[in-house]
Amino acid sequence: MTTSCVSTSTRDLAVVTGASSGIGFELAKQFAEHDFDLIIAAEDAAIHTAATELEQFGVSVQPVQVDLSTDAGVDELYERMSAAGQRVRAVALNAGVGAGGAFATDTALEDELRIIDLNVRSTVHLAKHVVRDMIDRGEGRILFTSSIAATMPGSFQAVYNASKSFVQSFALALREELKDSGVTITSLMPGPTETEFFERAGMLDTKVGASDKDDPADVARQGFKALMDGDQRVVAASVATKLQGHGSRLLPDSAKAAMHRKMAEPGSGKP
Fold first, then answer.
1. Closest of 35, 30, 5, 33 to residue 19, by C-alpha
2. What domains lie within the chain, and their CATH numbers?
3. Helices assigned H by DSSP within the chain
4. How confident is the model at residue 8 (pLDDT cuts 50, 70, 90)?
5. How does pLDDT run across 89-132, given as a tens digit for each residue?
């Protein structure tokens, strides 16, 4: 287990998971630009490169290379947070993974269970610690990275969309429970974003994988603002994404599942 010294910094501390690249890295950058010290976590070694880049903003950055799909990984990250000696003012629970393909024939059970472990189980596990600490202090901000995928049944991404529906429901329920506590909960709902997600999920041959996507920096900028403003949720980042997020609330589930098939079915992105 990595150890660290207690900080003497007077800055507030922010924690960002899934921060080695994509939306998570850009969220960490937003915190750094606004003078937060950081603890950033991801399972891959790129988290150390990300930390070096973020230190250029003149803040302290502690990288934690840890697998948050395991209880031991979550516990290690929380121990690092507790040992930092700084007030954790904000936490962005952003780590997540996906897998595309037909549930019956294309996807591996171990991959889908890992989606649940990372997207759902680790989110609940870390939030349990974080929420209690913030309640004890009477202040804090938590950002959950959900998705517009949370609003529709995810044909050919069945487990991923279901995991994001869980995160969305969980975040909104906590917001109501904590409304008089001084702790705010915000849900970030990005649409398709230019990250490594679609490559890792094996979805580059799908219509959504091959289409134009939002800039993760724009998503993070809007998410950070919503978090600091204490907003309930933000659909980010482009106008098209915002329209899709709004429109999906008006359609019946059967229509949304059929629409998702057209976007996510393997081979749908081929000419």
1. 30
2. 13-264 (3.40.50.720)
3. 22-33, 46-54, 71-83, 109-115, 122-137, 158-177, 197-200, 207-210, 216-229, 239-248, 253-264
4. low
5. 999 999 999 999 999 999 999 999 999 999 999 999 999 999 99
**pLDDT, tens digit (0-9, with 9 covering 90-100), for 39-59:** 999 999 999 999 999 999 999
Evaluate whether 16 touches 90 at the Cβ level (below 8 Å): no
Cis omega before residue 237 (within 30°)?
yes
**Claim: this prediction has a pTM higher than 0.85:** yes
Active site residue 160: yes
Cβ–Cβ under 8 Å, residues 20 and 53 = no
Could you give the CA distance from residue 10 to residue 36 in angstroms, rounded to a whole number? 10
Catalytic-labelled residue, pool 160, 170, 197, 198 = 160
Residue with tokens 């990300």: 50
